[in-house]
Specification:
The structure holds two protein chains of two kinds. Chain A contains 15 helices and eight strands. By secondary structure, chain A is of the alpha+beta class. In chain A, a hairpin with a 2-residue loop joins strand 6 and strand 7. In chain A, helix 3 packs antiparallel against helix 4, helix 5 packs antiparallel against helix 6 and helix 7 runs antiparallel to helix 12. Chain B has two domains: 72 residues, no CATH class; 256 residues, no CATH class. The model of chain B has no long low-confidence stretch (mean pLDDT 84). Classes of the chains: A alpha+beta, B mainly alpha.
Chain lengths: 374, 339
């Protein structure tokens, strides 16, 4: 009897797709509904940031470029770059600047996770949590806007300080947000996190074992979702994070296997609660006096040399490798992007899943193409 | 009704034509209202407002504006698409849905066609919607559409079975397939409604409603047109009024399922207050109220729940709904025998 001829279908989850978070093209090789291979093609958003930085006349002028890499969590990018430069120039920023930076970074982490959760719900088919998450995000963006005038791409954290001091009622606004937010997290848990359909779609899907995660260079919630307790804020502290008391959220496989999509999702939800704790402590400890611009150097001309500094962004371990040749403009600014590494992980965890699962997996890895392509 | 029309019109064919388009007079305004309602319901659930401007009060004319926009869009047929199937598919789907409205008794005086096998007819003709969807998916010459169409075929065909078994439960309790007779059986007081007939009828009602949501491709069963994954499923390549017809089919299906649920279980055109507010004209009012209530419940579910994956959808149908439906049927039959 002749063999039934079946072919593998190659389908393009194209650059224009409602659910690949940005312009990502995933070439799916399908056997019916099962994915045999998933090959990501990137570069649709490459904007030559690193090359542009080399022609900047001032190291401060790189900050807007760095903003636009991971446009969802712009403060985190700026913070990483500023810390790298301050390490190279050996600048010590005033206490007030440190505290404001931490508050903003953690607010940005909450905002970024809110977007990740909202769009993840959208991918799975739950349309409503997306808008509720954005309502909370608006509160955070209001705080940002009242401080530096921008809602998404701030150009706020400069090398050696900040571009603007915070407005007068900043502490009250932040305290209001701290009171306003925890019931909303409970709302998300009621609506989405423990919803049976959501759990069925995400538990045991896209399991990333801990050793594979470490070997592939995963970081951030992707790594912590697989059960590995590693957070740069605790294990390689920068800025003043060693002064704050917070837990590292790790996936425990509550609903399925350790390292499945649900674990990565719930790590993000719980990280928002921990960020809220950090913000609460920072607002209490923040000094009221101090000039945010006093440590900003008039001219940035570092000695020839190089520096590598890494920070924990909402997406993972963002590293900056900056080489200076002694002149006013950088010789090389290289950003080690966590999303780029995670995009490489997608084929590994998608094999054997179904087409609908690929969407869930890409959403749970939470890539932002701006950072992947730079 | 046909007879009344035949008296006044010169040719019988005109009477038949007008009589046959009466459901259109019901479906089109309903679709206008339902689409607006969906946008408002979803908006308020999502902490926003929805249409507010078009037509003045809360944007009630938004759907009319959208229809006009759809009508003036360019008619795009993809290059390598099967032209005939592509153009005909939406109409087949709509015709199937429309045909089922012929046997729904809108009031004690009006039913489109006095069929003694009404329930059977409805179940049979709604399965033709699959054909329309498959035509659309295949003819689009698009792998995503094909995937969507395959999923739809599997889904609708599978979920027919719980629907049929739930309808059978009603038939067993009522003793007839004629929808008008079933409605008349439930007149009197609210406790005559078939859903209160026995505790198992309530279960049958729930089963029917869930299977009905799956039949009309609504969230959480809307994988065929899942916007997040397959871009639009079988509708991806459709634009303008052709897409509008598919949308109309979906809303007509929703209304059909709601109306059937009210006819079979909740007393059709009977008023819940017994004699108060009942009569032939009130009958139409009650039918529409009950139908719109279930349409609202469907919308509510759509904007709350995530979507089921295809294999989970099939699991729900074959491993849960169908065994429950059959056991329920047996229990109802036993109840009938004993009481």
């Amino acid at each position: 009897m002749p063999e039934l001829r079946t072919e593998e279908m190659v389908i393009n989850m194209g650059p224009q797709h409602p659910s690949t978070h940005g312009v990502l093209r995933v070439e799916l090789v399908l056997d019916g509904e099962i994915v045999v291979d998933a090959i990501p093609h990137i570069g649709y958003l490459h904007r030559c940031f690193e090359k542009h930085s080399e022609s900047m006349n001032d190291y401060q002028q790189v900050i807007p470029y760095v903003d636009r890499m991971d446009y969802v969590a712009a403060i985190s990018n700026e913070l990483g770059y500023a810390i790298a430069m301050e390490r190279m120039l050996d600048i010590q920023v005033p206490e007030r600047v440190e505290y404001i930076r931490v508050i903003f970074a953690e607010l940005q982490r909450i905002a970024s996770h809110l977007l990740a959760l909202g769009t993840y719900g959208l991918d799975i088919g739950a349309f409503t949590p997306f808008l509720h998450c954005f309502r909370e995000r608006e509160r955070i963006l209001d705080i940002f806007e009242s401080t530096c005038g921008a809602r998404l791409l701030y150009n706020y954290i400069w090398v050696g300080g900040l571009s603007h001091d915070v407005p007068d009622n900043f502490k009250n606004k932040v305290r209001d947000f701290i009171k306003y937010f925890p019931p909303k997290i409970k709302g998300y848990n009621d609506l989405l996190s423990y919803n049976k359909i959501f759990i069925d779609r995400t538990a045991d899907v896209g399991v990333l074992p801990a050793d594979v995660a470490v070997n592939c260079g995963a970081s951030g919630p992707v790594l912590r979702g697989s059960g590995v307790e590693w957070d740069l804020r605790r294990h390689d502290p920068y800025s003043i994070y060693d002064r704050f008391d917070f837990d590292i959220v790790v996936g425990k496989g509550e609903m399925g296997t350790v390292g499945d999509c649900w674990d990565r999702y719930i790590v993000r939800v719980r990280e928002m609660e921990q960020s809220l704790r950090i913000i609460e402590q920072a607002v209490e400890q923040m000094p009221d006096e101090g000039d945010v611009k006093e440590a900003i150097p008039k001219r940035i001309r570092p000695d020839a040399g190089e520096v590598y500094a890494r920070t924990e962004t909402p997406r993972g371990d963002l590293g900056y490798y900056i080489i200076s040749d002694g002149s006013m403009s950088p010789y090389r600014v290289k950003a080690r992007s966590p999303c780029f590494v995670h995009t490489g992980l997608i084929p590994t965890i998608s094999r054997g899943a179904m087409v609908a699962d690929v969407v869930a997996i890409i959403g749970s890895v939470d890539i932002v193409l701006g950072e992947v392509d730079r | 009704m046909v007879e009344i029309l035949q008296e006044y019109l010169p040719f019988p064919i005109m009477a038949f034509a007008i009589h046959a388009s009466i459901p259109l007079i019901i479906i089109l305004p309903y679709a206008l209202v339902a689409i607006w309602l969906e946008r408002k319901v979803s908006a308020h659930m999502q902490d926003r407002l929805g249409p507010m401007r078009v037509g003045g009060w809360h944007g009630w004319a938004q759907t009319i504006a959208d229809m006009v926009k759809l009508l003036q869009k360019e008619d795009i047929v993809p290059r390598n698409a099967d032209r005939f199937l592509f153009k005909f598919g939406p109409y087949v789907a709509f015709m199937a849905s429309y045909g089922a409205f012929a046997v729904i008794p809108f009031s004690s005086e009006y039913v489109g066609a006095h069929l003694d096998v009404g329930a059977l007819y409805v179940v049979a003709i709604t399965s033709l919607v699959t054909l329309g969807i498959l035509m659309g998916g295949w003819a689009s010459n698009n792998k995503w559409s094909l995937l969507g169409a395959m999923r739809t075929a599997a889904q609708i065909v599978s979920y027919e079975i719980p629907t049929v078994v739930a309808v059978l439960s009603v038939v067993v309790a009522a003793g007839t397939l004629n929808l008008m007779t079933i409605s008349e059986m439930q007149s009197g007081s609210i406790f005559n409604w078939l859903v209160f007939h026995s505790p198992f009828m309530f279960l049958a009602f729930i089963l029917f409603f869930i299977a009905g949501i799956a039949e009309s491709n609504r969230n959480p069963f809307d994988l065929p047109e899942s916007e997040s994954e397959l871009v639009g499923g079988f509708q991806t390549e459709y634009s303008g009024m052709r897409w509008g017809i598919y949308m109309l089919t979906e809303y007509a299906d929703m209304f059909l399922v709601s109306l059937l649920a009210s006819v079979l279980f909740l007393g059709a055109w009977n008023s819940p207050f017994g004699e108060f507010m009942s009569g032939p004209i009130w009958g139409v009012f009650w039918m529409i109220v009950k139908g719109m209530f279930f349409v609202f419940v469907m919308m509510w579910l759509r904007w709350t729940l995530p979507r089921l994956r295809v294999d989970q959808l099939m699991d729900v149908c074959w491993k849960y709904l169908i065994p429950f439906a059959f056991i329920n049927l047996v229990l109802i039959a036993l109840w009938e025998m004993i009481f």
